[in-house]
Write a structure and sequence with these properties.
The longest helix is centred in the last third of the chain and has 23 residues. Helix 3 packs antiparallel against helix 10, helix 4 packs parallel to helix 10 and helix 13 crosses helix 14. The chain has 14 helices and 14 strands. The strands form three sheets. A seven-stranded mixed β-sheet has the order 4-10-9-8-7-5-6, with helices on both faces. Strands 1-2-3-13 form a four-stranded mixed β-sheet. The protein has a three-stranded antiparallel β-sheet with strand order 11-12-14, with helices on one face. The two termini are 16 Å apart. With 446 residues, the protein is an alpha/beta fold. It folds into two domains: 185 residues, Alpha-Beta Complex (Aspartate Aminotransferase, domain 1); 254 residues, 3-Layer(aba) Sandwich (Aspartate Aminotransferase, domain 2), CATH 3.40.640. Bound molecules: pyridoxal-5'-phosphate (PLP).
């Protein structure tokens, strides 16, 4: 029996909803990352509800949820404290005063306290928005135009950064001097002149380009650990090199911590790896599942906004829902021992998967950091997107996703996404996942 037939029998109601959705919503889903094209074949499951680490589809099937809304549900679904804080704030006050208010200061002060590189912060609504602002702010601050970014990193859908993310490898040029490739149609190709795209974790090409063009570079933007090409950690010394070379050249270093922020420790990747950027973007995780994003940085750079020399505007910026969610989430994340405990839960899962795969004779690398990881079906180390394209067995990954899904474990069907362990996943969730995996790895080996 094919997967499609088993899936249809498992999720008939989702099938009906998908047909209905497709008549009024392009692709039947509100973001392209939820569509058939992105791997949700033959159609995405439709969700009825979520509680904590579990999510239930329209057919009543419950899953241990490692998709976590693609990252934001860091406290699990419907965390009662965050829900109550938001409900209270909007009942007492409203949603969108269009002027500053006290709760906004509270939310901002808590983010400043948590993230080492943030002395001042502004709130917006999505990661794409704040990345767009960060890039333009860096250009305004330095008076330069050139941006360096890396292949396989995703920084949202704005024209300035929607490049070289999972494009056709045949178009991408040589690894030591990649060609910028727009990530989709509609991006003005004139922007090619404003970009240098490099292979990540490759110190030599970075050093060479900075020696040649460093004086023209406004900013280097990077995921500080890459979670948009599965999970790839920086090689020792690599982030330090980015920091050193940008400082030397008078360019800004932007850490796009939309995923890594608050993920495996409260201060994000910059705290974990001990490298402080000039600008930081945050989103997923920041509001415990509510839509909010932030751009923050040194007083010097954010001073451009303070002095009115750079306009960061937005009708919905720092709305009451966002600030109430941030404030409550920051309090919860400050619980002593929380991250240590959850990294252990994640590590136990990763270790369990490694062992089960080895027992079944399936070569895998489980790469990541405690509460976020990916299973590469590869016996070769993956240091960047080019390695992933070359060495990771995507067909095996698809079967892994399919078999786990049918056994009640949910994660994204693309190997370029990852598994998120929330701060409320438990050892019981891990046990249930490992039980499913113990059945699935032998199927993959067959
Ligand atoms: N930056 C990174 C690192 C991301 O992972 C994403 C989204 O996945 C974005 C930016 C864009 O964020 P949003 O989807 O909220 O616009």
């Amino acid at each position: 029996v094919s997967f499609d037939e088993r899936y249809a029998a498992h999720t008939p109601k989702s099938g009906e909803l998908f047909a209905r959705a497709g008549r009024v919503i392009p692709g039947g889903a509100g973001s392209s990352a939820r569509t058939v094209k992105f791997g949700w074949k033959p159609y995405p499951p439709f969700i009825a509800s979520g509680t904590g680490s579990r999510i239930t589809d329209a057919d009543g099937n419950e899953y241990v949820d490692y998709l976590l809304g693609l990252g934001p549900m860091i406290l699990g679904h419907r965390h009662p404290v965050v829900t109550a804080a938001v409900t209270k704030a909007i009942s007492d006050f409203g949603t969108c005063p269009g002027l500053p208010y006290e709760l906004e200061i509270e939310a901002a002060a808590k983010v400043v306290e948590a993230v080492p590189g943030i002395e001042m912060v502004r709130f917006s609504n999505s990661g794409s928005e704040v990345v767009g602002s960060a890039v333009r702010l860096a250009r305004a601050y330095t008076g330069r135009r050139l941006i360096i970014r890396f292949e396989g990193h995703y920084h949202g859908w704005q024209d300035t950064v929607y490049w070289s993310n999972h494009v056709d490898p045949a178009e991408a040029g040589p690894a030591d001097a990649p060609r910028p490739v727009a990530a989709g149609p509609g991006v003005p190709l004139e922007l090619t002149d404003t970009l240098i795209v490099l292979t990540w974790n490759d110190p030599d090409s970075f050093r060479r380009v900075m020696a040649e063009r460093g004086h023209d570079v406004a900013a280097v933007i990077t995921e500080a650990a890459v979670f948009n090409t599965g999970c790839i950690l920086p090689e020792p010394g690599y982030l330090e090199l980015l920091r050193e070379e940008t400082s030397k050249a008078g360019a800004l270093l932007i850490f796009d911590e939309v995923i890594t922020g608050f993920r495996f420790c409260r201060g994000g990747a910059q705290e974990w790896f001990g490298v402080t950027p000039d600008l930081t973007t945050l989103a997923k995780g920041l509001g415990g599942g509510f839509p909010v994003a932030a751009i923050g940085g040194s007083k010097d750079v954010m001073g451009m906004i303070a002095e009115g020399r750079y306009s960061h505007s937005g009708t919905y910026n720092a709305n009451v829902v966002a600030c109430a969610a941030v404030s409550a989430t920051m309090d919860l994340l400050a619980e002593p021992g929380l991250y240590e405990r959850q990294r252990k839960v994640g590590d136990r899962l990763a270790e369990g998967l490694r062992k089960l795969a080895a027992d079944a004779g399936v070569p895998v690398r489980v790469d990541g950091l405690g509460t976020v990881f990916q299973v590469w079906f590869s016996d070769h180390p993956i240091k960047n997107w080019r390695d992933a394209e070359r060495y990771a067995n995507v067909d095996r990954f698809t079967r892994w996703y399919q078999e786990m899904f049918l056994r009640g474990v949910l994660f994204h069907p693309s190997q370029y996404e990852n598994l998120f362990v929330s701060l409320v996943h438990t050892d019981a969730d891990v046990d249930r996942t490992l039980e499913a995996a113990a059945e699935v790895f032998p199927v993959l080996a067959a």
